[in-house]
């Protein structure tokens, strides 16, 4: 049995550390906000789970468990502004990743709830496994002469160095990508440059590969499937490696087609945001 938390389906995944502003207007989610605001402000329970809706699936028309992806992220409420019509404007920040085990539908409370398991332990194990990538292979250790007692230190040292190279590579690719997208949006004709907001965000995640990986995943104009695959990856190194491939693909499309591929959900029937 997992932990039961409120659930809020959206058209795209939420990532840890990413700011998500929302306008709450639907009655059941107004009730959710009242329930959260009734909790102690000093506690850590003012959050709900965000999960992405699968392309072309309407949650209300099929079983929710089938319409939703199985990896989500909590949205921790940071600011609430009640509206005159009874709704709310809120600001949330992505928190912990979780795996969706089951969806609970009922009349009380009226909003969806989810039985989830937290992925912190899986993240730790996958991070450690990711650090061995390139050091341990099918044929055994690449560095067999190293004593077992010293292996962890070697792995950690090599991992830090290679992570730094990988992070710089993704940072450079993302900088080029953002500049190309901005240049395309302005009609071209100038030297592609990164806007001030993106530059500030990149500076904020300097030295933090995990934060960089989530910034890229949430900011690049990717399909829901691509973003969901990045959210589902527990190891930062593997997430960055996947982003390197995706950014190279997107840069090629930008430079050869002169267009940004639109996520498929933009062509689907309109769906409520809450």
Topology:
Layout: E1 3-10, E2 19-24, H1 27-37, E3 47-52, H2 64-67, E4 71-82, E5 88-104, E6 113-118, H3 120-131, E7 136-137, E8 140-141, H4 148-185, H5 196-204, H6 209-219, H7 224-232, H8 236-257
Parallel strand pairs: 1-3
Antiparallel strand pairs: 1-6, 2-5, 3-4, 4-5, 5-6, 7-8
Index terms:
Methane Monooxygenase Hydroxylase, Chain G, domain 1; 2 domains; globular; 8 helices; alpha+beta; 274 residues; Archaeosine Trna-guanine Transglycosylase, Chain: A, domain 4; five-stranded mixed β-barrel
H/E topology pattern: EEHEHEEEHEEHHHHH
Tell me the distance between the termini.
27 Å
By helix and strand content, what is the structural category?
alpha+beta
Shape: globular
Second rung of CATH, namely the architecture of the largest domain: Up-down Bundle
Number of strands: 8
Oligomer: single chain
Q: How many structurally independent domains? A: 2
Helix content: 40-55%
- What percentage of the residues does DSSP assign to strands (E)? 15-25%
